[in-house]
Write a structure and sequence with these properties.
By secondary structure, the chain is an alpha+beta fold. 42% of the residues lie in helices and 14% in strands. It has helices at residues 12-23, 73-84, 119-122, 128-145, 168-185, 194-203, 205-208, 254-260, 270-278, 287-311, 316-337; strands spanning 29-35, 42-48, 53-58, 94-98, 108-112, 117-118, 155-156, 164-165, 215-217, 226-228, 239-242, 249-251. Strands 1-2-3-5-4 form a five-stranded antiparallel β-sheet, with helices on both faces. It has a three-stranded antiparallel β-sheet with strand order 6-10-11. The longest helix has 25 residues, at 287-311. The radius of gyration is 20 Å and the shape is globular.
């Protein structure tokens, strides 16, 4: 997994200061291990001397190069976990939200550690039946998540006021427009002119307008952000928690399926569909839904392409893959929207 310039690593003395802010002066560290799986925030698995097992997440520093939607993004993650808790989906408990920026010039969260391991870390060891069962459970989990709606009625990113709005067309237009400004700011070459991409969105806002209720969308439910159990042989694995909710959006539930499979169609996966529908969810079909799916793929591919520059990825395989695939898929999505 490529490293990222946004990760702000801190020493154990700083970790201790943050934990004392969270839990009081008596908090003491028995063991502290950096977690290297994520792309954006720094994270540490910490065992406290009183036996509590927690994860500390720390936002990038103030000088880090970020995309527009990433401003104060950890506050969006806090919104996600607290809002999603009412759905009953498995999640880490938020133990402390450190947004005062007194102990450190940034935000931090302390979460209860989850049982199990990330799905992607064991995926190669799973047989087809086990993978199908987990995908079915993922579909059901997403359906439960989508029962949560924004009480204030706004769409978009909760932590960035100008990237949220009272309607989904306004919010999506602002979100995509910000990505195009990011591309200009970081001198990222796009496969199509920015004005043409803006016009494609304007031509399809009628389809976005069909979404009138802002639903809680994780938007990053790939297997690295899903914890599964590690049961004895012969016992089925289960999803034990969803992590990394910082990309959450109040929006269209169809957007979730793009986050599940950025290069595919998770909404057409038979196991995910079965779980989603069985749990009470509805997967829209028809021209309007297809146009919206294409808009969400367009957004995701632009995001993946543009973020490579400020993140400073250096892994050649990763860079070659995304530098080739993202432009191709942006062009394909644009073709479907014409």
């Amino acid at each position: 997994m490529p490293d990222s310039l946004t990760k702000r690593r801190v020493d154990e003395a700083t970790v201790a200061v943050l934990l004392r802010e969270a839990f009081g002066p008596g908090a003491a560290i028995a063991r502290c291990t950096e977690l290297n799986d994520g792309f954006f925030n720094a994270a540490y698995r910490i065992l406290l001397e009183d036996g509590r097992d927690v994860v500390l997440k720390i936002s990038p520093g103030p000088a880090a190069a970020l995309l527009g939607y990433e401003r104060d993004i950890m506050r969006g993650e806090d919104v996600f976990f607290r809002a999603a808790a009412i759905s009953g989906v498995p999640l880490p408990e938020v133990l402390y939200s450190g947004f005062e920026r007194a102990a450190i010039d940034g935000d931090f969260l302390v979460l209860a550690a989850l049982e199990g391991v990330t799905w992607d870390s064991v995926d190669a060891d799973l047989d087809d039946a086990e993978k199908a069962a987990l995908r079915t459970e993922l579909g059901a989990t997403a359906a439960r998540l989508h029962t949560v709606t924004n009480p204030n009625g706004r769409f978009g990113y909760p932590a960035v006021r100008e990237l949220s709005a009272d309607s989904w067309p306004e919010a999506y237009t602002a979100m995509l427009g910000e990505l195009l400004r990011d591309a200009e700011r970081y001198n990222v070459a796009l496969p199509l002119p920015a004005d043409e991409l803006r016009q494609l969105v304007a031509d399809n806002t009628v389809h976005l307008a069909e979404i009138i209720e802002p639903v809680l969308v994780h938007f990053d439910l790939w297997t690295g952000n899903i914890f599964v159990s590690t049961p004895p042989d012969g016992t089925a694995r289960r999803i034990t928690g969803l992590i990394d909710g910082e990309r959450m959006i109040w929006g269209d539930p169809l957007m979730e399926f793009v986050g599940m499979d950025v290069f595919g169609r998770a909404d057409q996966d038979p196991d995910i569909r079965a779980g989603y529908l069985r749990a009470g969810g509805t997967i829209e079909a028809g021209q309007a839904a297809e146009r919206r799916i294409s808009l969400y793929h367009l957004y995701m591919q632009l995001l993946l392409l543009i973020e490579m520059t400020p993140r400073g990825y250096t892994d050649p395989g990763y860079l070659e893959w995304f530098a080739t695939e993202c432009p191709r898929r942006i062009f394909a999505a644009a073709q479907r929207l014409r």
